[in-house]
Amino acid sequence: MHNASIKEFTKDFIFPKKGTTVFTIALVIGFLMTVVGYFVGGIDGHRFWANILLNGFLIIGLSLGAGFFVAVHLIAESGWQTSVQRIGEAMASRIWLGALMIIPIILGVHSLYHWSHTEELDALLKMKEPYLNLPFFVIRMLVYLGGWIFLLSKIRQVSLMSDTNPDIKLFYRLRTYSAIFVVFFAITSSTASWDWLMSIDAHWFSTLYGWYTFSGLFVNSIAVIIIFLVVLQKIGYMQHVNNEHMHDLGKYLFGFSIFWAYLWISQYLLIWYANIPEETTYFVTRIKGFETLFYVNLIICFVAPFFALMSRGNKRKSDWLLYVSIVVFMGHWIDTYLAIMPGAVGAEHAHIGLFEIGMTVMYVSVFAWLVFKEIAKAKLVPENHPFYKESFDYENIK
Amino acid sequence: MKSNNYITGLFWDDTELIKAIKEIQDKGIAIFDVRTPFPVHGLDDVLKLKRSRLPRLGFVAGAIGGILAFWFQSWVFTTSWPLNFGGKPFFSVPSFIPVTFEMTVLFAAISLVVGFLIKSGLGPGAENIIFDERTTDDAFLIVVKITDNSQSDNIFEVLTSVGASEVKHVEPTKTDTHA
Amino acid sequence: MYISPLREPLVTGAKSYKQVTDDILNPMEGKPGKFWYAGITLALIALGLGGFAMYITVWEGIGSWNLNKTVGWGWDITNFVWWVGIGHAGTFISAILLLFRQKWRTSINRSAEAMTIIAVMCAGLFPIIHMGRPALAFFVLPYPNTRELWVNFNSPLFWDVIAITTYLTVSVLFWYMGLIPDIATVRDRMKKGIGKKIYGLLSFGWTGSARHWSRHESMSLILAGLAAPLVLSVHTIVSMDFATSVIPGWHTTIFPPYFVAGAVFSGFAMVLTLMIITRKALNLQNYITVGHVESMNKVIIATGSIVGIAYITEFFMAWYSGSVYEQYAFVNRAFGPYWWAYWIMMTCNVITPQLFWFKKIRRNLAATFVISIFINIGMWFERFVIIVTSLHRDFLPSSWVMYAPSWVEVSIFIGTFGLFFTLFFLFIRFFPVIAVAEIKTVLKSSGEKFIKKGDRDEK
After folding, report:
1. Would you state the pLDDT for residue B154?
2. Same domain, B67 and B106
3. CA C216: distance to chain centroid?
4. In whole angstroms, what is the distance from residue A43 CA to residue A111 CA?
5. Per-residue pLDDT tens for C438-449?
6. How many CB atoms lie within 10 A of CB C451?
């Protein structure tokens, strides 16, 4: 495939006027649902802040997972993913949006975290106070957000510079930033998940929790990358992406859904097996109070993508991947719901109502809008990436 | 005179091999087999080989293995001799998973290998014709089967014209088959 | 398939297909050198020592070991987990790197797979000899019997039996199926005789037919797809030997992926140790290049860092949990009577792999060789620390004891090295150590310069 025809395929993305209309409508609908749901559902502080946390975490997770995807592939010097790199980059560079969405939970700390009620701490929470206290919590949050925003913005910036400057030194710089981000993210993704999610059930702990949360947000990011990609394809862009690229993305969705399930069962089986009450309480509250959702979570996040993506052919079809990705995204919404609601709200008051769905529609609309606008800001492919040409001439084994 | 005779054309380069095959097919000659020292990219397509059904066999065998393993563990612990192990329920699904998973993989892998060997006619003591011993080293061979010797001149010409370095008429005898 | 010219060539030295065959099969033809004889003799001596120690174990009983009531598992299980862990690199290279289309795996996968099979065999010795009555080892299998007794399917120890058996079987199948075309190459090069007959039998009648290659690739891909989760599952199940318990330092949810990362980490280190020697001894520098070593070092830094993060996580969570017992387990590891083992582990596992961030060190063979040995020492100590420090001091202080191995246990461990190297030397002698056919598939696109036949004189 020679250069000229590649250029035809990868015409620049211009954000369509219809897009503004679509997203405004979606935002308005989401907003109305949220407001109506607020008044109809009798939302109290717990449920309100729990949803802020849920949606904020989901959105920031998308940026982080996409950034991780791009960074790891840059370090690994992979060629195929240059075709879809710009989507991941755009998602990652919207990290500031995720940061804005998650920072408000500082105001809701009292509704979310028992450890913040410093007047009535029991012995165990008192012991954890050096780590679980508001000032340190806020400082850590600012460190995470600051580091993520800086590194992901730098990666996006250098990648865009390479469009006009083919100097290979830029690629090496990109790799350096990617390596730093991967290490920083490896540590902070765990600590952030302990701070924001695990400490909701402050009497409980699990060493696997950080990695388990990471696997969920990573699969989610892959699913959303696929969704953005297929939507762009449907409106006539990204025509250079062929079945081989879809196959590779499908393999990621398949493989990491299995990896998520593997970590899920590792955590569950070990806690179930040892049967130690201080650990099992976590799962007992979920199975007793959220039984349907507990099993539906497994079915949507694991069983569905496992069978849907097992066959080679299925991994190569854009439409099929789109549907499976949407299902997987909903599944991980449920997974994050189950991580937050039982501890923050409790079985009696936790529902999936208009409020919940409306808020997610709002958050997702804003995110999608801003990501599409960001994609439009640059070329759809990093043409000066040293391994860019490899993206067009490879085949998966039949 | 009917007998199984073969005419072979030798090539030293895989790209030329693919080109030659296309030209031979254009001339309407049916290719019996192609022998290569490694799997050549694009050979499947040009020979229009059907996709293997082995994956399906693997899936079915794996499913059988998994279901068998899960059912067996359940039967042992609920019917045959239920024993209280650390207070776990008799029908303890989480602890059945490791063995179920392993059996799935084991059954699938064994079925794939056995299926592959049987379908390809390979195994200890299998006797297959080796047309040229260099095809496991660096030579690529196109083999055309002829049922009567009158065609042989034509095929000789075609093979030479598409670039074969050596064209030979082979009548496989007992000594040509290798276990 | 287009490969960017910026990438380092996977095969250097301007090779043709014929030269690839000649270079790789050369060590198998003719008489083995002094090095091979010396190596296998040493290995056999070690094996003999181990065999004798195993005889003492069976004849005298487990009392010839220094295990006691508190420390029921010592060097035996440490060695078991260490060997199984090492075995994981082979399958990782064969299966997972195949799924990620990493062409550089073609020079090392055959040896790595062989290493896996041998390592798993060495590992498998321990569950058998650590039984009080190894003659009754078949009790672990669920066969119908007159007592209507079944095995405990709920026990991780039984899961181990199934997992290791499956792993050994699938590894052998994967290794052998890949080996068949190369054995055919050996067969066709030999002159008539008993050698040709034996390799002919082993080659299963392989012809190189296009149809067979097509099916072979399809089967290899599915086997890789099966082997990948298998690798994860085997060391996960091994980790569950510990994690399903309730004692501090053992019962922790991070064990499954952390053990898998550690296994790949130590396995790659062992592959490096072996390959750096082998490439020199067998003149295969053009196939196992500095680039290959660098790629393996990158895997090491990734998995080593994951292991490091797991240490930090466990440490933090021990404090965070508020459990006195959990906290003491970690204090004891660092400052108790086995502090020296802990700090060896930390230095070798956490600090040494981080050196590979520096490109100069990544591409330095001598440094890599030394570091790879340190990593394996570190990983042995990791298993020792986990097993012995958690056992020797758990909930009841009146049960606290010390443990040190007897000469029998040490000799058995030396014996496993004997078994490993005996089999590995035999492998080098009788089989091609590099996947000949697979190298040829990458030669044109990733070779330094592909020489077509006819472009060079003779050969």
Report:
1. 85
2. yes
3. 25
4. 12
5. 999 999 888 877
6. 17
Q: Is the pLDDT of residue C458 over 80?
A: no
Tell me the CB-side half-sphere exposure of residue A348, using CA atoms within 13 A. Answer: 2
What is the 8-class DSSP label of residue B11?
Answer: E
Sheet containing strand B33-35, edge to edge, reads B33-35, B140-146, B5-11, B166-170
Determine the average pLDDT of the residues in A18-24: 92
| Rounded Cα–Cα distance for residues A205 and C354 (Å) | 29
* DSSP sequence for C208-241: -BHHHHHHHHHHHHHHHHHHHHHHHHHHHHHHHH
Q: Amino acid identity of A108?
A: G
Please check the confidence at residue B177 and state whether its pLDDT lies above 80: no
- Which B residues 141-170 touch C at CB under 8 Å? none
Structural domain harbouring B60:
54-120
Residues 288-347 of C with CB under 8 A from A: 305-306, 309-310, 312-314, 317, 320-322
The tokens for A5 are: 């025809």
Provide DSSP, A340-388: HHHHHT-TTT----HHHHHHHHHHHHHHHHHHHHHHHTS-SS-TT-TTG
**Model confidence, pTM:** 0.94
B35 SS3 class: strand
Structure tokens at A172: 């090496």
What span, in angstroms and rounded, lies between the C-alpha atoms of A136 and A113?
Answer: 14
Residues of C in contact with A183 (CB under 8 A): 305
Choose one of B91, B120, B149: the last residue of a domain: B120
* Closest by Cα among A221, A96, A87, A71 to A150: A96
| Nearest chain C residue to B115, by CA | C219
Distance from CA of C154 to the nearest CA of B (A): 5
- Judging contacts by C-beta atoms under 8 Å, the chain B residues touching residue C18 are 137-138
Partner residues linked to B11 by β-bridges: B140
Per-residue model confidence (pLDDT) at position C455 = 59
Cα within 13 Å of Cα(C147), Cβ side: 6
* A345-365 pLDDT per residue, tens: 998 888 899 999 999 999 999
Reported as a pLDDT band with limits 50, 70 and 90, residue A385 is: confident
Q: What is the CA radius of gyration of chain C?
A: 23
Same domain, B62 and B93: yes
Each domain of chain A, given as residue ranges in start order, spans 3-392
Alpha carbon of residue C443 to chain centroid: 27
List the subunits that have 3+ CB pairs under 8 angstroms with B.
Answer: A, C
| Tens of pLDDT, residues A216-268 | 999 999 999 999 999 999 998 888 899 999 999 999 999 999 999 999 999 99
Give the integer Cα–Cα distance in Å for A309 and A301: 12
CB atoms within 10 A of CB C457: 5
Same domain, B116 and B87: yes
Segment C118-130 mean pLDDT: 95
Q: What is the ipTM of this complex?
A: 0.93
Report chain C residues whose CB lies below 8 A from the CB of A73. none
Q: How many domains does chain B have?
A: 2
Residues B62 and B111 in one domain: yes
Looking at the DSSP assignment, which residues form a beta bridge with residue A265? Answer: none
Residues across chain C: 459
pLDDT value at residue B3 = 56
CATH of residue B136's domain is 3.30.70
Q: For C456, what's the count of Cα atoms within 13 Å in the CB-facing half-sphere?
A: 14
Report all structural domains of chain C as residue ranges with CATH numbers, in order of start. Answer: 17-135+151-446 (1.20.1630.10)
Q: Pick from C21, C150, C207: which is nearest to B80 by CB?
A: C150
* Cα–Cα dist A49/A38, whole Å: 12
- Distance of alpha carbon C237 from alpha carbon A273, whole angstroms: 13
A269 and chain B: CB distance < 8 Å anywhere?
A: yes
Same domain, B81 and B116: yes
Residues B105, B61, single domain; the answer is yes
